[in-house]
Amino acid sequence: MEHTNLKPATKFIHAGLTPDPATGAIMTPIYQTSTYVQDGVGNHKGYEYSRTLNPTRHALEKNIAAIENGNYGACFGSGLAAIDCVIKMLNPGDEVISTNDLYGGTYRIFKTIFEKYGIKFHFVPMGDPSAVAQYVNENTRLIWVETPTNPMMNIVDIKAMAAIAREAGALLAVDNTFATPYLQTPLDLGADIVMHSATKYLGGHSDVVMGILVVKDEKLATEMYRIQNSSGAVTAPFDSFLVLRGIKTLHVRMQRHCENGERIAHFLKSHPKVDKVYWPGFEDHPNHEVAKAQMSGFGGMISFSLKGNKLEDAHAIVSKVKIFALAESLGGVESLIGHPATMTHASIPKEEREKSGVVDSLIRLSVGIEDAGDLVADLEQALA
Questions:
Q1: Fewer CB atoms inside 10 Å of the end CB: C or N, the chain?
Q2: Rounded CA gap, 383 and 340, in Å?
Q3: In the predicted model, what is the mean pLDDT of residues 273-285?
């Protein structure tokens, strides 16, 4: 289906998708096959081997490219496998500028896998674009942005980063996992690559692990597909089916995540035991105006710290909740609670963690789509 003029809600359900030509099935079938029979040598129907291309995965790749306003999508076995693909586009001696407030797994793959291959990483606060520009040199090949960041919800100006990247002759990659294409489309703001952990909001039901890249440029896409096929970290047909299904309700889920997130953020801000609340919708949140300009809503991710900043207080709260589940990950229909310092960000050294605000009492919420009143009551009893 032609998707350029469709509104997002329609695009999520239809873009890039057609009924199955063999049966008319409205939902893309799960092509659970490793190989495809050819009519003659080199004479096939576009599919030779499922690592290279599989019809279910191909449908998802077309769908995600359309909803991110890109031209080419690629799916991987996890978000980190997608990040792995991007860094493999670089060469020894190249330099990457990234935010200092970064998902722990991204930090780990940068530092412990790729640094030893001669790629240099700079982790800098990205709230002020001029501070980032100071790290640019003739070896800068990539700027890696998360916005909102994990877990401090810092907002990075994508347009400003795109201008810095263009001037440096570097690529700009944006991890759009927290915002999703419902709230933000980085390619429209000048990014070259959009990355998702589709495990989170795109899948939306905590039942799949997957990573996705989307690009506009054909040359970049050729390199992306070369690495995807050569490294082989692809996603399975059934997982592709699950994420296709998840994306069809992304807009209605995100509306509720945003509504519930707003209510909980205001509840926490007024609670006497809470010190700071990190949610981009507050007018005093750093770069709130940037968030308003580049996002259509503020999402369902919230972090907060406690007065007294005691580790044991945070551990007590995360163990007392009854509806919120203590678990890694985010973006599912159910509400999750986590303790970044000992969970998602444990791979970042304590000194580095605390510099970016990940203190011992910091708690991260992935606000689900349950009844908002029940969620507030659950946090109230845990904080009591």
A1: C
A2: 18
A3: 98
